[in-house]
Structure formats: structure tokens, C-alpha cells
What we know:
Blueprint: H1 8-14, H2 19-25, E1 27-31, H3 33-42, E2 47-52, H4 54-59, H5 61-67, E3 72-75, H6 78-84, E4 93-98, H7 104-112, E5 118-122, H8 128-140, E6 145-148, H9 158-164, E7 172-175, H10 179-188, E8 192-202, H11 203-209, E9 216-220, H12 229-232, E10 237-240, H13 252-268
Parallel strand pairs: 2-3, 5-6, 5-9, 6-7, 8-9, 8-10
Antiparallel strand pairs: 1-4, 2-4
Amino acid sequence: MLDSPRAPRVREAARLQQRAARSSTGLFLLEGPACLDEAVRWQPAQLVEVFVTDAARERHPELLERAAQHAQLTDVSERALAAIADTVHPQGVVAVAKQAPVRLEDAIARAAASEHPLVAILHEVRDPGNLGTILRAADAAGASAVVVTANSVDAFAPKVVRATTGSLFHIDIAVGASTIDAVEAAAAAGLSVLAADVSGEDLVDLQSEGVLARPTAWLFGNEARGLDAGTLALADRAARLPVYGRAESLNLATAASVCLYQSAFAQRALR
């Protein structure tokens, strides 16, 4: 058992809390049995090593038995695990996994060929919780891919990974492309690019026109600044969510979830 937080393997894993270490190694951390379970179910080849406490072994024997078929299991003390984990109260399991981003062109092509073509393009999204929640919502709405453009938060940061609750193992994630390249790739593949913006047309009107039923790439902007005029001009149409109550606005993740689901509903209504 690795007991000391200063043990070389513990320190090496803990370094993955930092973006520089994730970028140089191509690895990332995922915490908790739920996220590990999704990795084992859907992308077991990405797993490298699982750090586990005695208490977690007792609580999750079946999960850890399956994980051991794909990755090295390393016993650690509670204090050693705390040094690796990003959370204040870790759940006894932290895994190291390989990042598996998909090339922009491949992600868009697969989405365009799917039964319900739906993609989210994220322009300079900076909040980890927002990014993780959008990835989860995109997965739930049946989107095939999420494009995390340059100058956005790291898609493999611990807080992002936690917020996805495992959805990053279900859909294609492309990272690092410029927003222009992402939009052009979507358009070239036959997707209609819709920008979510307060200056846009009422989403209900676009739904009535049948716009949302088309193969679609939604373009979502920065939490504070939204989409600048140049980026907004890249889209075919812009849509705004109507506010019927007294709320000043919706946060990015909530707005993105609504937009993606409205497209999912409209596409499936064509059956």
C-alpha cells in the first residue's frame, strides 16, 4: 500500500490536477465510483491505473474487479488518496486515464452521418462546471459531438470531468480547434449552424419554421461576453430563449441544455 502523499506515484498522479501535466502526458484524473463505472463500461482501454482505499474496496468489489481487467489497481491510504483527489471529500477511488479527443473533421463527419445530427460548438467557455454540464446535456440529448474550441477551459480538468458524470466517455469530444474552423467544418458537412444569442430570433419561432428539425450545430459563447459580432456572423441563424418570468437571464449551461433538447425533440418528431 502507498501510504505517503510524497510517494513518487502519488505525486505523479497528483500533478494531473494541473493543466500543464495533463497536456504533457495526455492523461487525466477521474474521481469516484460512478465515473469509473462509466469508463469501465464504455471506454475501458482509456484506463491506466486506479488508486483505491481499503474502504472503497469493501464498498465496490464488483466494480473494482471489472476495472482490474483493464488497469492496474493500486492500494493507497486515505491521506495518499486525498493528495491525488481534487475534491475535499474523495470517495475512495481516483483513476488515471488516457485522454481520447477526436479530430474535428472526424467528429463532425460522424455526427453528420448519424440518425439525428446534432453538435455543440463551445466558443471560449471558461467555467469548468458549465463545460461539464453542457457535455452531460449534449450526451443526454443525443448529440454526437461537442467541440471545445481554443481558449476554452480544459475539457479534461477534474471539475469538468466530475460535472460530466461520465458523459465524456459516451460522445466525441474535439478540442483546440478555432471557432471558425469548427463552424466551417459543420457547414461543409451539411449542418445548419445556430448561434444562441440574446439578439437572435425567438427559439419558438424557429421551431415553428422547422429550423430545429434540421441537422444542426449549436454555437454557444463565453459566459460573460457571449458571442462577439464576428463570431455571431459565422452562424446561419441566431436564436434566443424567451424569458416568460422575471429572471434576468439563464446561465450558459441551462440555456445550452434547452437548445440542445429542443433540437432533439424537433428531429425526433419527424419520424
